[in-house]
Amino acid sequence: MPWRNKEASSPSSANPSPEALQSPSSRGNMADKLKDPNTLGFLEAAVKISHTSPDIPAEVQRSVKEHIMRHTRLQRQTTEPASSTRHTSFKRHLPRQMHVSSVDYGNELPPAAEQPTSIGRIKPELYKQKSVEGDDAKTEAKTCGKINFSLRYDYENETLIVRILKAFDLPAKDFCGSSDPYVKIYLLPDRKCKLQTRVHRKTLNPTFDENFHFPVPYEELADRKLHLSVFDFDRFSRHDMIGEVILDNLFEASDLSQETSIWKDIQYATSESVDLGEIMFSLCYLPTAGRLTLTVIKCRNLKAMDITGYSDPYVKVSLLCDGRRLKKKKTTIKKNTLNPVYNEAIIFDIPPENMDQVSLLISVMDYDRVGHNEIIGVCRVGISAEGLGRDHWNEMLAYPRKPIAHWHSLVEVKKSFREGNPRL
Protein backbone atom coordinates (compact mmCIF):
# COMPACT_ATOMS: atom_id res chain seq x y z
CA MET A 1 0.00 0.00 0.00
CA PRO A 2 1.22 3.51 -0.68
CA TRP A 3 1.18 4.58 2.93
CA ARG A 4 3.14 1.50 3.95
CA ASN A 5 5.79 2.21 1.27
CA LYS A 6 5.94 5.83 2.32
CA GLU A 7 6.48 4.83 5.93
CA ALA A 8 9.21 2.42 4.96
CA SER A 9 11.04 5.13 2.99
CA SER A 10 10.77 7.70 5.74
CA PRO A 11 13.93 9.43 6.90
CA SER A 12 13.71 7.74 10.28
CA SER A 13 14.41 4.41 8.64
CA ALA A 14 17.86 5.62 7.72
CA ASN A 15 18.76 5.72 11.39
CA PRO A 16 17.09 2.71 12.89
CA SER A 17 16.36 2.91 16.65
CA PRO A 18 17.73 0.36 19.14
CA GLU A 19 14.30 -1.21 19.41
CA ALA A 20 14.30 -1.83 15.64
CA LEU A 21 17.71 -3.46 15.77
CA GLN A 22 16.63 -5.92 18.44
CA SER A 23 15.82 -9.49 17.57
CA PRO A 24 12.31 -10.91 17.98
CA SER A 25 13.37 -12.71 21.15
CA SER A 26 14.63 -9.45 22.62
CA ARG A 27 11.35 -7.83 21.76
CA GLY A 28 9.51 -10.61 23.56
CA ASN A 29 11.61 -10.07 26.66
CA MET A 30 10.95 -6.38 26.48
CA ALA A 31 7.23 -7.02 26.25
CA ASP A 32 7.40 -9.16 29.39
CA LYS A 33 9.28 -6.39 31.21
CA LEU A 34 6.69 -3.87 30.13
CA LYS A 35 4.01 -6.08 31.61
CA ASP A 36 5.96 -6.34 34.88
CA PRO A 37 4.88 -3.43 37.11
CA ASN A 38 8.21 -3.56 38.96
CA THR A 39 10.20 -2.59 35.85
CA LEU A 40 8.78 0.87 35.71
CA GLY A 41 12.01 2.30 34.29
CA PHE A 42 11.62 0.29 31.06
CA LEU A 43 8.06 1.46 30.62
CA GLU A 44 9.03 5.09 30.80
CA ALA A 45 11.97 4.59 28.39
CA ALA A 46 9.86 2.72 25.81
CA VAL A 47 7.05 5.28 25.56
CA LYS A 48 7.62 8.01 23.01
CA ILE A 49 6.64 11.37 24.41
CA SER A 50 5.68 13.04 21.10
CA HIS A 51 5.76 12.15 17.43
CA THR A 52 7.03 15.63 16.60
CA SER A 53 9.98 15.53 19.04
CA PRO A 54 13.42 14.82 17.57
CA ASP A 55 14.83 11.32 17.86
CA ILE A 56 17.14 10.62 20.79
CA PRO A 57 20.65 9.72 19.69
CA ALA A 58 21.70 6.10 20.06
CA GLU A 59 24.50 6.93 22.51
CA VAL A 60 22.09 8.69 24.85
CA GLN A 61 19.61 5.85 24.62
CA ARG A 62 22.39 3.35 25.38
CA SER A 63 23.52 5.27 28.46
CA VAL A 64 19.94 5.58 29.67
CA LYS A 65 19.40 1.88 29.13
CA GLU A 66 22.54 0.99 31.09
CA HIS A 67 21.46 3.30 33.92
CA ILE A 68 18.03 1.67 34.02
CA MET A 69 19.53 -1.80 34.00
CA ARG A 70 21.84 -0.89 36.89
CA HIS A 71 18.91 0.51 38.85
CA THR A 72 16.88 -2.63 38.20
CA ARG A 73 19.72 -4.86 39.43
CA LEU A 74 19.99 -2.85 42.65
CA GLN A 75 16.28 -3.35 43.29
CA ARG A 76 16.61 -7.08 42.70
CA GLN A 77 19.41 -7.27 45.28
CA THR A 78 17.07 -5.99 48.00
CA THR A 79 14.43 -8.64 47.41
CA GLU A 80 13.83 -11.29 50.10
CA PRO A 81 15.92 -14.43 49.62
CA ALA A 82 14.18 -17.69 49.02
CA SER A 83 13.24 -19.64 52.12
CA SER A 84 13.72 -23.32 52.68
CA THR A 85 10.94 -25.82 52.07
CA ARG A 86 10.44 -26.40 55.80
CA HIS A 87 10.17 -22.66 56.43
CA THR A 88 7.70 -22.26 53.56
CA SER A 89 5.55 -25.05 54.96
CA PHE A 90 5.66 -23.42 58.38
CA LYS A 91 4.51 -20.14 56.82
CA ARG A 92 1.63 -21.88 55.12
CA HIS A 93 0.29 -23.65 58.22
CA LEU A 94 0.94 -21.10 60.94
CA PRO A 95 -1.71 -18.51 59.94
CA ARG A 96 -4.29 -21.29 59.80
CA GLN A 97 -3.49 -22.36 63.36
CA MET A 98 -3.26 -18.83 64.73
CA HIS A 99 -6.36 -17.63 62.87
CA VAL A 100 -4.69 -14.46 61.70
CA SER A 101 -4.79 -12.87 58.29
CA SER A 102 -1.14 -11.92 57.99
CA VAL A 103 1.97 -12.85 59.88
CA ASP A 104 5.40 -11.32 59.50
CA TYR A 105 7.78 -14.12 58.47
CA GLY A 106 10.84 -12.00 58.08
CA ASN A 107 14.11 -13.76 58.54
CA GLU A 108 15.57 -10.86 60.44
CA LEU A 109 16.79 -11.68 63.93
CA PRO A 110 14.55 -10.38 66.73
CA PRO A 111 15.77 -7.16 68.26
CA ALA A 112 17.84 -7.56 71.39
CA ALA A 113 15.95 -7.11 74.65
CA GLU A 114 16.20 -3.62 76.01
CA GLN A 115 18.66 -3.52 78.85
CA PRO A 116 17.04 -2.00 81.96
CA THR A 117 18.69 1.07 83.33
CA SER A 118 19.68 1.52 86.95
CA ILE A 119 17.13 4.30 87.36
CA GLY A 120 14.24 3.15 89.56
CA ARG A 121 15.74 -0.30 90.18
CA ILE A 122 15.96 -1.53 93.78
CA LYS A 123 19.34 -2.84 94.86
CA PRO A 124 18.67 -5.31 97.70
CA GLU A 125 22.30 -5.50 98.70
CA LEU A 126 22.28 -1.84 99.69
CA TYR A 127 19.16 -2.23 101.80
CA LYS A 128 20.45 -5.40 103.40
CA GLN A 129 23.66 -3.75 104.46
CA LYS A 130 21.77 -0.80 105.86
CA SER A 131 19.39 -3.06 107.76
CA VAL A 132 22.23 -4.99 109.39
CA GLU A 133 23.97 -1.82 110.47
CA GLY A 134 20.69 -0.37 111.72
CA ASP A 135 19.91 -3.48 113.76
CA ASP A 136 23.32 -3.42 115.42
CA ALA A 137 23.01 0.23 116.32
CA LYS A 138 19.46 -0.33 117.51
CA THR A 139 20.51 -3.22 119.75
CA GLU A 140 23.28 -1.19 121.31
CA ALA A 141 20.96 1.73 121.95
CA LYS A 142 18.27 -0.41 123.59
CA THR A 143 20.37 -2.00 126.32
CA CYS A 144 20.09 -0.39 129.75
CA GLY A 145 22.20 -2.32 132.18
CA LYS A 146 22.54 -5.99 133.07
CA ILE A 147 20.81 -8.35 135.45
CA ASN A 148 22.13 -11.50 137.11
CA PHE A 149 19.81 -14.36 138.09
CA SER A 150 19.91 -18.13 138.49
CA LEU A 151 17.53 -21.02 137.75
CA ARG A 152 17.10 -24.39 139.41
CA TYR A 153 14.33 -26.98 139.29
CA ASP A 154 13.19 -28.83 142.41
CA TYR A 155 12.15 -32.25 141.08
CA GLU A 156 10.74 -33.39 144.43
CA ASN A 157 8.31 -30.47 144.78
CA GLU A 158 7.94 -29.80 141.01
CA THR A 159 8.91 -26.17 141.47
CA LEU A 160 11.05 -23.81 139.42
CA ILE A 161 13.25 -21.69 141.71
CA VAL A 162 14.23 -18.29 140.30
CA ARG A 163 16.87 -16.40 142.25
CA ILE A 164 17.29 -12.70 141.47
CA LEU A 165 20.89 -11.90 142.41
CA LYS A 166 21.74 -8.36 141.34
CA ALA A 167 21.57 -5.70 138.64
CA PHE A 168 24.36 -3.57 137.26
CA ASP A 169 24.66 -0.18 135.56
CA LEU A 170 20.96 0.75 135.59
CA PRO A 171 19.90 4.13 134.12
CA ALA A 172 19.09 6.97 136.50
CA LYS A 173 15.39 7.82 136.78
CA ASP A 174 15.49 10.45 139.55
CA PHE A 175 16.70 14.02 139.37
CA CYS A 176 19.44 13.18 141.85
CA GLY A 177 20.98 10.77 139.34
CA SER A 178 19.79 7.58 141.03
CA SER A 179 16.88 5.10 140.98
CA ASP A 180 14.79 2.99 143.34
CA PRO A 181 14.75 -0.30 141.41
CA TYR A 182 12.81 -3.50 141.94
CA VAL A 183 12.07 -6.53 139.72
CA LYS A 184 8.78 -8.21 138.77
CA ILE A 185 8.94 -11.88 137.78
CA TYR A 186 6.46 -13.71 135.50
CA LEU A 187 6.52 -17.25 134.17
CA LEU A 188 4.73 -16.73 130.86
CA PRO A 189 2.16 -17.32 129.51
CA ASP A 190 0.71 -17.18 133.05
CA ARG A 191 0.47 -13.56 134.18
CA LYS A 192 -1.79 -14.21 137.15
CA CYS A 193 1.16 -15.31 139.28
CA LYS A 194 3.36 -12.23 139.55
CA LEU A 195 6.18 -12.00 142.09
CA GLN A 196 8.48 -9.09 142.81
CA THR A 197 11.56 -8.18 144.79
CA ARG A 198 11.96 -5.56 147.47
CA VAL A 199 12.65 -1.96 146.48
CA HIS A 200 16.26 -0.81 146.86
CA ARG A 201 16.63 2.89 147.52
CA LYS A 202 18.90 5.23 145.59
CA THR A 203 21.15 2.81 143.76
CA LEU A 204 22.04 1.89 140.19
CA ASN A 205 23.69 -1.40 141.19
CA PRO A 206 21.22 -3.14 143.51
CA THR A 207 21.86 -6.52 145.14
CA PHE A 208 18.57 -8.40 145.60
CA ASP A 209 19.51 -12.01 146.46
CA GLU A 210 15.88 -13.20 146.68
CA ASN A 211 14.33 -16.57 145.78
CA PHE A 212 10.96 -17.04 144.04
CA HIS A 213 9.11 -20.33 143.58
CA PHE A 214 6.86 -21.19 140.62
CA PRO A 215 4.96 -24.51 140.89
CA VAL A 216 5.10 -26.04 137.41
CA PRO A 217 5.50 -29.62 136.10
CA TYR A 218 8.84 -30.38 134.49
CA GLU A 219 7.14 -31.35 131.21
CA GLU A 220 5.72 -27.81 130.85
CA LEU A 221 9.03 -25.98 131.22
CA ALA A 222 9.74 -26.22 127.48
CA ASP A 223 6.61 -24.11 126.79
CA ARG A 224 7.28 -21.49 129.47
CA LYS A 225 9.18 -18.19 129.25
CA LEU A 226 10.75 -16.23 132.08
CA HIS A 227 9.88 -12.52 132.01
CA LEU A 228 11.77 -10.09 134.25
CA SER A 229 10.61 -6.46 134.37
CA VAL A 230 12.80 -3.87 136.11
CA PHE A 231 10.91 -0.86 137.53
CA ASP A 232 11.79 2.35 139.28
CA PHE A 233 9.66 2.89 142.38
CA ASP A 234 7.82 6.22 142.66
CA ARG A 235 5.72 6.97 145.71
CA PHE A 236 3.62 9.74 144.22
CA SER A 237 3.10 8.61 140.61
CA ARG A 238 3.10 5.48 138.52
CA HIS A 239 6.29 3.47 138.51
CA ASP A 240 8.63 3.90 135.56
CA MET A 241 9.59 0.77 133.67
CA ILE A 242 13.36 0.66 133.21
CA GLY A 243 13.51 -2.40 130.97
CA GLU A 244 12.85 -6.09 130.63
CA VAL A 245 14.46 -9.48 129.99
CA ILE A 246 12.66 -12.39 128.32
CA LEU A 247 14.27 -15.83 128.50
CA ASP A 248 12.58 -17.88 125.77
CA ASN A 249 14.42 -21.12 126.55
CA LEU A 250 14.66 -22.06 130.22
CA PHE A 251 17.16 -24.78 129.31
CA GLU A 252 19.47 -22.31 127.61
CA ALA A 253 22.27 -22.68 130.18
CA SER A 254 21.70 -26.16 131.66
CA ASP A 255 19.12 -28.86 132.37
CA LEU A 256 18.18 -27.02 135.62
CA SER A 257 19.29 -29.93 137.79
CA GLN A 258 21.84 -27.59 139.38
CA GLU A 259 21.68 -23.87 140.02
CA THR A 260 23.09 -21.99 137.04
CA SER A 261 23.96 -18.29 137.07
CA ILE A 262 22.87 -16.25 134.01
CA TRP A 263 23.75 -12.70 132.96
CA LYS A 264 21.41 -10.90 130.54
CA ASP A 265 21.28 -7.42 129.01
CA ILE A 266 18.25 -5.44 130.08
CA GLN A 267 16.34 -4.24 127.01
CA TYR A 268 14.20 -1.13 126.90
CA ALA A 269 10.54 -2.14 126.82
CA THR A 270 8.99 -1.76 123.34
CA SER A 271 5.68 -0.60 124.81
CA GLU A 272 5.36 0.50 128.39
CA SER A 273 1.99 -0.45 129.82
CA VAL A 274 0.65 0.85 133.11
CA ASP A 275 0.41 -2.21 135.35
CA LEU A 276 -1.85 -1.20 138.23
CA GLY A 277 -3.56 -4.54 138.82
CA GLU A 278 -7.09 -5.92 138.49
CA ILE A 279 -10.23 -6.12 140.58
CA MET A 280 -13.06 -8.65 140.51
CA PHE A 281 -16.57 -7.70 141.59
CA SER A 282 -20.13 -8.75 140.84
CA LEU A 283 -23.23 -6.67 140.10
CA CYS A 284 -26.81 -7.65 140.95
CA TYR A 285 -29.95 -5.51 140.63
CA LEU A 286 -33.41 -6.18 142.12
CA PRO A 287 -35.94 -4.07 140.14
CA THR A 288 -38.85 -4.67 142.56
CA ALA A 289 -36.83 -3.48 145.56
CA GLY A 290 -34.79 -0.90 143.64
CA ARG A 291 -31.59 -2.30 145.16
CA LEU A 292 -28.16 -2.52 143.51
CA THR A 293 -25.58 -4.80 145.15
CA LEU A 294 -21.89 -4.62 144.26
CA THR A 295 -19.83 -7.39 145.84
CA VAL A 296 -16.08 -6.75 145.95
CA ILE A 297 -14.53 -10.21 145.63
CA LYS A 298 -10.75 -9.70 145.36
CA CYS A 299 -7.85 -7.90 143.67
CA ARG A 300 -4.64 -9.19 142.14
CA ASN A 301 -1.25 -7.84 141.09
CA LEU A 302 -1.82 -4.42 142.61
CA LYS A 303 0.79 -1.70 142.32
CA ALA A 304 3.21 -1.62 145.26
CA MET A 305 2.81 1.66 147.14
CA ASP A 306 5.08 1.09 150.15
CA ILE A 307 8.85 0.86 150.33
CA THR A 308 8.46 -2.74 151.49
CA GLY A 309 7.07 -3.66 148.06
CA TYR A 310 3.50 -4.06 149.31
CA SER A 311 0.37 -1.97 149.86
CA ASP A 312 -2.47 -1.62 152.36
CA PRO A 313 -5.39 -1.67 149.92
CA TYR A 314 -9.09 -1.04 150.37
CA VAL A 315 -11.88 -0.39 147.86
CA LYS A 316 -14.06 2.71 147.73
CA VAL A 317 -17.26 2.73 145.62
CA SER A 318 -18.88 6.06 144.66
CA LEU A 319 -22.40 6.47 143.24
CA LEU A 320 -22.36 9.16 140.54
CA CYS A 321 -25.24 10.99 138.86
CA ASP A 322 -24.51 13.47 136.07
CA GLY A 323 -20.91 13.75 137.27
CA ARG A 324 -21.84 14.45 140.90
CA ARG A 325 -21.11 12.06 143.72
CA LEU A 326 -24.25 11.12 145.65
CA LYS A 327 -22.92 8.45 148.00
CA LYS A 328 -19.71 6.60 148.78
CA LYS A 329 -18.96 3.37 150.64
CA LYS A 330 -15.78 1.38 151.24
CA THR A 331 -14.46 -2.02 152.26
CA THR A 332 -12.10 -2.95 155.05
CA ILE A 333 -8.32 -2.46 154.77
CA LYS A 334 -6.06 -5.42 153.96
CA LYS A 335 -2.52 -5.00 155.30
CA ASN A 336 0.73 -5.72 153.45
CA THR A 337 -0.61 -7.44 150.36
CA LEU A 338 -0.90 -6.99 146.63
CA ASN A 339 -3.57 -9.69 146.25
CA PRO A 340 -6.27 -8.89 148.80
CA VAL A 341 -9.47 -10.93 149.21
CA TYR A 342 -12.60 -9.09 150.45
CA ASN A 343 -15.92 -10.80 149.62
CA GLU A 344 -17.75 -7.73 150.93
CA ALA A 345 -21.10 -6.43 149.63
CA ILE A 346 -21.90 -2.75 149.06
CA ILE A 347 -25.58 -1.83 148.59
CA PHE A 348 -27.16 1.24 146.96
CA ASP A 349 -30.89 2.02 146.70
CA ILE A 350 -31.65 3.16 143.14
CA PRO A 351 -35.17 3.31 141.62
CA PRO A 352 -35.52 1.58 138.20
CA GLU A 353 -36.34 4.88 136.47
CA ASN A 354 -32.95 6.31 137.54
CA MET A 355 -30.75 3.40 136.44
CA ASP A 356 -29.95 5.09 133.12
CA GLN A 357 -28.67 8.22 134.90
CA VAL A 358 -26.21 6.74 137.39
CA SER A 359 -22.83 5.03 137.29
CA LEU A 360 -20.38 3.55 139.78
CA LEU A 361 -16.73 4.57 140.21
CA ILE A 362 -14.66 1.84 141.87
CA SER A 363 -11.37 3.10 143.35
CA VAL A 364 -8.67 0.89 144.86
CA MET A 365 -6.88 2.93 147.53
CA ASP A 366 -3.69 2.51 149.55
CA TYR A 367 -4.14 3.31 153.22
CA ASP A 368 -1.48 5.51 154.83
CA ARG A 369 -1.54 6.02 158.58
CA VAL A 370 0.60 9.17 158.52
CA GLY A 371 -0.14 10.95 155.24
CA HIS A 372 -3.15 10.96 152.94
CA ASN A 373 -4.43 7.85 151.18
CA GLU A 374 -3.28 7.32 147.59
CA ILE A 375 -5.28 6.03 144.63
CA ILE A 376 -3.79 2.86 143.13
CA GLY A 377 -6.24 2.66 140.21
CA VAL A 378 -9.89 3.02 139.25
CA CYS A 379 -12.54 1.53 136.97
CA ARG A 380 -16.08 2.59 136.10
CA VAL A 381 -19.35 0.81 135.28
CA GLY A 382 -22.58 2.31 133.94
CA ILE A 383 -24.42 3.34 130.80
CA SER A 384 -21.92 6.16 130.19
CA ALA A 385 -18.87 3.94 130.83
CA GLU A 386 -16.63 2.50 128.12
CA GLY A 387 -15.83 -1.04 127.03
CA LEU A 388 -16.22 -3.71 129.68
CA GLY A 389 -17.70 -1.24 132.17
CA ARG A 390 -20.69 -0.61 129.89
CA ASP A 391 -21.04 -4.28 128.92
CA HIS A 392 -21.00 -5.42 132.55
CA TRP A 393 -23.72 -2.90 133.42
CA ASN A 394 -25.95 -3.92 130.49
CA GLU A 395 -25.52 -7.60 131.33
CA MET A 396 -26.65 -6.88 134.90
CA LEU A 397 -29.80 -5.15 133.60
CA ALA A 398 -30.50 -7.98 131.15
CA TYR A 399 -30.36 -10.63 133.90
CA PRO A 400 -32.00 -9.12 137.00
CA ARG A 401 -31.68 -10.83 140.40
CA LYS A 402 -28.57 -12.69 139.18
CA PRO A 403 -25.01 -11.75 140.29
CA ILE A 404 -22.75 -11.08 137.28
CA ALA A 405 -19.00 -11.15 138.06
CA HIS A 406 -16.09 -9.90 135.91
CA TRP A 407 -12.44 -8.95 136.21
CA HIS A 408 -11.73 -5.25 135.50
CA SER A 409 -8.31 -3.74 134.82
CA LEU A 410 -7.42 -0.71 136.91
CA VAL A 411 -6.43 2.51 135.16
CA GLU A 412 -5.03 5.80 136.34
CA VAL A 413 -7.58 8.26 137.66
CA LYS A 414 -8.53 10.83 135.03
CA LYS A 415 -7.85 14.51 135.54
CA SER A 416 -11.54 15.29 135.04
CA PHE A 417 -12.39 13.10 138.05
CA ARG A 418 -9.90 15.00 140.19
CA GLU A 419 -11.15 18.41 139.09
CA GLY A 420 -14.85 17.62 139.25
CA ASN A 421 -14.62 15.55 142.43
CA PRO A 422 -11.69 16.65 144.57
CA ARG A 423 -12.41 13.99 147.17
CA LEU A 424 -12.26 11.06 144.74
At the first level of CATH, the class of the largest domain is: Mainly Beta
CATH topology of the largest domain: Immunoglobulin-like
The fourth-level CATH homologous superfamily of the largest domain is: C2 domain
List how many beta strands DSSP finds: 16
Helix content: 10-25%
Quick one: overall form? extended
The major beta sheet can be summarized as:
4 strands, antiparallel
Q: Which segments are poorly predicted (pLDDT under 50) over 5 or more consecutive residues?
A: 1-21, 37-47, 74-78, 94-107, 124-141, 418-424
Instruction: Going across the biggest sheet, name each strand in turn.
Output: 5-2-1-8
| Average pLDDT over all residues | 75
Distance between the termini: 146 Å
Radius of gyration: 51 Å
Helical/strand content category? alpha+beta
Give the count of helical stretches.
Answer: 9
CATH architecture identity of the largest domain: Sandwich
Quote the beta fraction: 25-35%
Number of domains: 3
Secondary-structure element pattern, one letter each: HHHHHHHEEEEEEEEEEEEEEEHEH
Describe the structure in your own words:
This protein has 424 residues and is α+β, with helices and mostly antiparallel strands. It folds into three domains: 22-50; 141-267, Immunoglobulin-like, CATH 2.60.40.150; 278-420, C2 domain (Immunoglobulin-like, Sandwich), CATH 2.60.40. It is built from nine helices and 16 strands. The protein has helices at 2-8, 18-21, 24-35, 40-46, 58-77, 85-98, 124-142, 388-398, 415-420, and strands at residues 143-154, 159-168, 181-188, 190-196, 207-215, 225-232, 240-247, 260-267, 278-286, 291-300, 313-321, 324-330, 341-349, 358-366, 374-382, 404-409. The strands form four sheets. Strands 5-2-1-8 form a four-stranded antiparallel β-sheet. β6 and β7 (240-247) form a beta hairpin. The N and C termini lie far apart (146 Å). 20% of the residues are buried.
